[in-house]
Structures are given as C-alpha cells and as structure tokens.
Amino acid sequence: VPRKTGAKGKLRLPAFNDWQSIVDDPAITPYLGDKVPDQDVWNGIYARHFPRQKLARAHQSVRKVYSLPRVKNPSGGFRVERITPDDRVWQLVESDGYSSCGFGVRNGAIDFSAPAPLPLLERSSSLTPLDEPPPSAESRVYYDDWQAVEVPGECRDRVSALYYAPGSKDRFYIRVAFTVEQFRSHVAPLLPETQRDPLSLLPSIRLENPDQWKQVFGEMLGKPRSELFLLGTGEQVQFEYIVNSTNAMMRSAYNRAWEQSHAAHHR
Questions:
Q1: What digits encode the pLDDT tens for the residues 53-72?
Q2: What are the Cα distances from residue 115, in Å, to 38, 160, 170, 228, 264?
Q3: Chain centroid to CA 45: how far?
Q4: Residue 194's CB: how many other CB atoms inside 10 A?
C-alpha cells in the first residue's frame, strides 16, 4: 500500500499501543526478561488496563431457597414426607388416579364406593392419604379382572356375548361380541360408511353419534367414551371400549358374575 500511494513510514497495529502500555506499567517492569509475575500482580495490571464496567442488568446474587410445589386439596391426594437440608416437611401431591388398583371386597360383595389403594401405598410410612381411607377389605377385585356377564333379555337378539372389567374408578371397560348377522343389522348402521363390512374394519373406530349406541343396545352397554377398539373379526366381531359412565345396572351385573366366578373357584 505505501508503494502505491507514495507514503513513507511504518504501519503499526492498533493493539501495539495497548501491549506497550502494559510493558511500561511499573508493576511489571521488574519482571521483564526475568520471571513471571505472581497472580496478584497480574490482577492489578488487569484492573488498570482492562477495567470492567458494572452493567445495570447484571445478575444480582440471590439467596438459595428450597421450595416444593404446592397444590390445592386434591381428591384422592396424598401427603408425602420430604427430607430437606434443614428439616422434614410434608408435601401435598395429586395422584391423578394412579394410587388405586381396583375395589375392595367387604362382607362378600364388591364395594364400588371407594377404590382400593395400592398395597405399596398402604404399607408406606412416608405417605398418608388426604381422604379418610376405606375400611380394611377382605380381598381386592382388580381393575383388569374381566367377567362374563349375562346379556340382558332385550339385547339377546343383538348381542352374542358381554364382558365387564372395572377399568377405573368411574368407567367400566366393556367387551362385546356380535355374530356377523348381528353386526350387519345393528352395528354397521352406527359406523362410518367405510367401516360397515366386517373385513374392512380398522383397529379403532370413532362413532359418528355415540348416543345412538346406547339407544340401540341399552343401559347395559352404555355410551362409549371414545373409540371402539377391534379385538377380532370372523365368525364373530368383537369390540372393546370404555363406557362414558358406569351405572348401577352394570355394577350389579358385574357383582353377580364375580360372586358366581368366586364361588366356583372355591368349590
């Protein structure tokens, strides 16, 4: 560049002056060409030549505080003992329906009024239920305990077989079987047009009008909460679904079926 412009002299990088000011610092002069300064000397040089401006938005130091999530009184919740650095505290937590495994059997009948807690929760010394625990049960009927129930008289021309499982606190799981003729006459009209042949059924089918299912098959089959799940097709077409709401007729029918199964098992 100097040759093209005719300028004379030397080019010097801007950083040269910064480094020169460090070399000329009295604190470092005794060490030049001899030994490396101690860290305290360097800290003083850094502070003089590279001052740090305190930002208005810089993070302020804060006191570390331990906390636990707090929830309002949940139905079916638990108090859980927690150990903190300073003490022991009890935290209220929601169980979201995962704290029970079925229903208790009392006086030889299933008590549907309150779910039976998981045995592990009952034995735990660091958990206490928020609600008053149900009385001790003789045994348990688990949510996945399927029982064949009697098909009601008004449905025998439309339903081949019917099964219940408690499923959850409020909603039974239902399995129902139809002959091919029953399916074509009573089920197919309730399904989407593309799902009206037994050989073209999808694994899950959403009813266009779930209320019609209950109108056709009555209280014992109820209203499906969501999809019908295909279990099998061939000589019979079988579905499983979650009922929208368990009614007294369903509970009574399940109780009778369980009692008969239980009695036969203990003969």
A1: 666 665 666 666 666 566 56
A2: 73, 31, 10, 26, 25
A3: 58
A4: 10
Q: What is the pLDDT of residues 106-158, one digit of tens each?
A: 888 899 988 888 877 777 778 777 777 677 778 889 999 999 999 998 899 99
Residue 161 CB neighbours (<10 A) = 14
* Single-letter amino acid, residue 245: S
Q: How far apart are CA 51 and CA 35, in angstroms?
A: 25
Structure tokens at 228: 């019908």
Which tens digit of pLDDT belongs to each residue from 185-230?
A: 999 999 999 999 999 999 999 998 999 999 999 999 999 998 999 9
Closest C-alpha to 100, from 165, 164, 166, 168: 168
Q: Are 228 and 205 in contact (CB under 8 A)?
A: yes
Selection from 247, 261, 263 nearest residue 152 by Cα:
247
What tokens appear for 216 in the block?
A: 């056709």
Report the amino acid identity of residue 93.
V
Are 166 and 145 within 8 A, CB to CB? Answer: yes
Asked if residues 236 and 160 have their Cβ atoms less than 8 Å apart, the reply is: yes
Specify the length of the chain in residues: 267
